């Protein structure tokens, strides 16, 4: 089998780009190390090709105050590939306390993370986080990985695990991954297969997502509500193409000040609730100043057999362009006012849906 790297008692470290303290199984870090404050900082990158290992965290995360990671990378170029990364809980062996990750990337990193299998984490399978400030941010390609969430546990108040996350100024491509069962039994959180948070220039292409609470989330967390670091970047220039979403609780969510997003050529089916939601947190916080999504284009998707097709709230002034989609029936999407006799998945709100496809794309 693969050579095993494990840690019965993890070490701790800090990085300049984050206020957190990290525990880790494997640390790959460029820059300068200060023993006085146990921190990596400054410029300087290293090149690494890490492949073919079993990374066993032994459920050794010690504190809910720390982030525990199988592989922690800072200022790294190269590849992380063909690794099996698992057992990344705390001593309790569940996700109720420690926030744990399979691969966690910071700093001036340019990494391709591919062909890995990640499971048994409580917060993120693979994550790249920017600094939300003037320092360089990661550029990543996350490709051909298999990520297993926990499913719906019986215990309440676990952390919400996200399969793949890019946020806070990190950019890159998420392509051809398979992500399953990212769910949590916690009314205050929602687990997501792929989540983009407060960043820009992201391509999400050809991924397969099944059994997740939320399949794909594109969210600009409002700075007026949460402050730093959510007040630094607005989400823009996001492309969701050729993904397959099957049997998720919710499909694609597009929230708040998100601009220039294209949802093209995806298949979204058997979603319990809505295939696509476009909305503003003002539905929960009406007194706050929060912008709604703009320039949302949704075309050539197969959207069928879902609880609902597209829903948007009353704050959506900019019309959502959702023409040329297949809605499960040649009569098009059901709309109480504009297409009440239709048999396809429903559309509600300020959405333009005419013309539609009369058969699944690409033949329709």
Largest sheet: 15 strands, mixed
N→C terminal distance: 48 Å
- Beta strand %: over 45%
Q: How many helical elements?
A: 1
Find the count of extended strands (DSSP E, 2+ residues).
Answer: 36
Low-confidence stretches: none
Structural category is mainly beta
Helix content percent band: under 10%
Describe the structure.
The protein has 364 residues and is mostly beta strands. It is built from 1 helix and 36 strands. The strands form 4 sheets. Strands 4-5-2-3-8-11-14-17-20-23-26-29-32-35-34 form a 15-stranded mixed beta sheet, with no helix packed on it. 51% of the residues are buried.
Topology:
Blueprint: E1 4-6, E2 11-15, E3 21-29, E4 32-34, E5 39-41, E6 46-51, E7 54-56, E8 66-74, E9 76-81, E10 84-86, E11 99-106, E12 110-114, E13 117-118, E14 124-129, E15 139-143, E16 146-148, E17 162-167, E18 171-175, E19 178-180, E20 192-197, E21 200-205, E22 208-210, E23 214-219, H1 223-226, E24 235-241, E25 244-246, E26 250-255, E27 258-264, E28 267-269, E29 274-279, E30 294-299, E31 302-304, E32 308-312, E33 320-321, E34 333-334, E35 344-348, E36 351-352
Parallel strand pairs: 1-7, 2-5, 3-8, 6-9, 7-10, 8-11, 9-12, 10-13, 11-14, 12-15, 13-16, 14-17, 15-18, 16-19, 17-20, 18-21, 19-22, 20-23, 21-24, 22-25, 23-26, 24-27, 25-28, 26-29, 27-30, 28-31, 29-32, 32-35, 33-36, 34-35
Antiparallel strand pairs: 2-3, 4-5
């Amino acid at each position: 089998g693969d050579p095993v790297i494990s840690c019965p008692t993890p070490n701790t470290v800090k990085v300049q780009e984050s206020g957190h303290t990290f525990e880790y199984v494997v640390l790959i870090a460029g820059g300068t190390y200060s023993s006085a404050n146990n921190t990596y900082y400054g410029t300087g990158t290293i090149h690494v090709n890490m492949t073919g290992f079993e990374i066993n965290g032994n459920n050794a995360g010690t504190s809910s105050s720390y982030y525990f990671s199988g592989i922690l990378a800072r200022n790294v170029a190269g590849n992380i590939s063909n690794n099996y990364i698992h057992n990344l809980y705390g001593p309790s062996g569940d996700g109720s306390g420690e926030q744990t990750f399979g691969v966690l990337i910071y700093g001036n990193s340019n990494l391709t993370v591919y062909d890995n299998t990640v499971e048994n984490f409580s917060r993120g399978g693979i994550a790249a986080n920017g600094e939300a400030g003037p320092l360089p941010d990661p550029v990543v390609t996350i490709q051909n990985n298999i990520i297993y969430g926990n499913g719906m546990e019986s215990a309440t108040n676990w952390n919400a695990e996200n399969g793949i996350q890019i946020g806070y100024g990190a950019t890159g491509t998420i392509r051809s991954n398979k992500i399953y069962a990212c769910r949590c039994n916690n009314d205050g959180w929602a687990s997501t297969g792929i989540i983009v948070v407060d960043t820009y220039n992201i391509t999400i292409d050809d991924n397969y997502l099944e059994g997740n609470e939320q399949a794909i989330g594109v969210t600009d967390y409002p700075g007026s509500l949460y402050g730093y670091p959510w007040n630094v970047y607005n989400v823009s220039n996001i492309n969701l193409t050729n993904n397959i979403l099957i049997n998720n609780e919710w499909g694609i969510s597009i929230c708040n000040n998100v601009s220039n997003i294209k949802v093209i050529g995806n298949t979204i089916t058997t979603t319990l609730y809505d295939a696509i939601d476009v909305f503003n947190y003002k539905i929960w916080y009406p007194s706050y100043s929060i912008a709604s999504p703009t320039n949302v284009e949704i075309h050539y998707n197969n959207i069928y057999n879902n609880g609902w097709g597209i829903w948007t709230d009353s704050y959506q002034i900019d019309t959502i362009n959702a023409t040329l989609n297949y809605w499960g029936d040649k009569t098009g999407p059901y709309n109480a006012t504009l297409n009440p006799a239709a048999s396809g998945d429903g559309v509600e709100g300020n959405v333009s849906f005419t013309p539609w496809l009369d058969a699944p794309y690409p033949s329709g």
